[in-house]
Amino acid sequence: MGTTQTRSENKYDDLVTKTGFSPEQIKNLHKRFQQLSENEETISKEHLHSIPALANNPIKKQIIDAFFDKRNQHQDEVGSFQEIGFEQFLMVLSHFRPPTLKMSEEDKARIRKEKLRFLFNMHDTDNDGTITLAEYRKVVEELLSKSGTMGIEAAKAIADAAMLGVASTNVPHMKPDEFYEGITFEHFEQILKGLEMETRMHIRFMDVNTTTMRCGKSTS
Ligand SMILES: [Ca+2]
């Protein structure tokens, strides 16, 4: 056991540094990845569509798209992948990693910002730096489409009202002829300022609930 562990730790050293996951977590996630990919080197969107834990998630599409979004790889690339390998898969999951107790305040702030950026990118589908009303509507529509009773018109009205609220908060002295172009990342940060990301932004992904993966801390 001891030797196997040492070997796997070495094997995952690089990924530990890149993602902040522990070797044990990486090992578990690797098993999941192999299950998903049916032991192939890469996975496609179809593989993720079959995950039962995601089946009823109203933003399933956005979550799956996020896995193939190059912006979520901590590099300066845009566009989307057709397929992703284990390292890319892990990089995306690292956005859901909760901060640990020993983390410095700066690190916590940096992680929070990364999570916000991830959420922002999820909405800013054309990557132009703003979440426009049209982009925002799409997400609200998809969120509400699962509830069934609410129509597209209602979704539009809700999105419009929410956007108007955002506009008036961020651009309080907007003139009648001015056009609110959408939410920038700075606005987005401002809007979600009071939101405690650590407990909210997690996904029950393939039975790996990242909130339970806190190292050395038992919550129950
Ligand atoms: Ca946009």
Give a brief outline of the structure.
Helix content is 53%, strand content 6%.
Shape: globular
Radius of gyration: 19 Å
| CATH fold descriptor of the largest domain | Recoverin, domain 1
Mean pLDDT: 78
Q: Please give the CATH class of the largest domain.
A: Mainly Alpha
Instruction: Catalogue the unreliable spans.
Output: 204-220
- Cofactors, ions, other ligands: calcium ion
**How are the strands ordered across the major sheet?**
1-2
Count of DSSP E strands?
Answer: 6
- Number of domain units: 2
Distance between the termini: 28 Å
SSE topology string: HHEHHEHHEHHEHHEE
CATH superfamily heading of the largest domain = EF-hand
Could you please describe the fold and organization of this structure?
The protein has 220 residues and is mainly alpha-helical. The protein has helices spanning 2-19, 23-37, 45-49, 60-67, 86-93, 105-123, 133-145, 152-170, 185-191, 197-200, and strands at residues 42-44, 83-85, 130-131, 183-184, 204-205, 208-209. The strands form three sheets. It has a two-stranded antiparallel sheet. A two-stranded antiparallel sheet has the order 3-4. Strands 5-6 form a two-stranded antiparallel sheet. A hairpin with a 2-residue loop joins strand 5 (204-205) and strand 6 (208-209). The longest helix is centred in the middle third of the chain and has 19 residues, at 105-123. The relative contact order is 0.12. Calcium ion (CA) binds at residues 124, 126, 128, 130-132, 135. Calcium ion is lined by residues 124, 126, 128, 130-132, 135. This is Calcineurin B homologous protein 3. It is found in: Cell projection, Lamellipodium; Cell projection, Ruffle membrane; Cytoplasm; Membrane. It is a lipid-anchor.
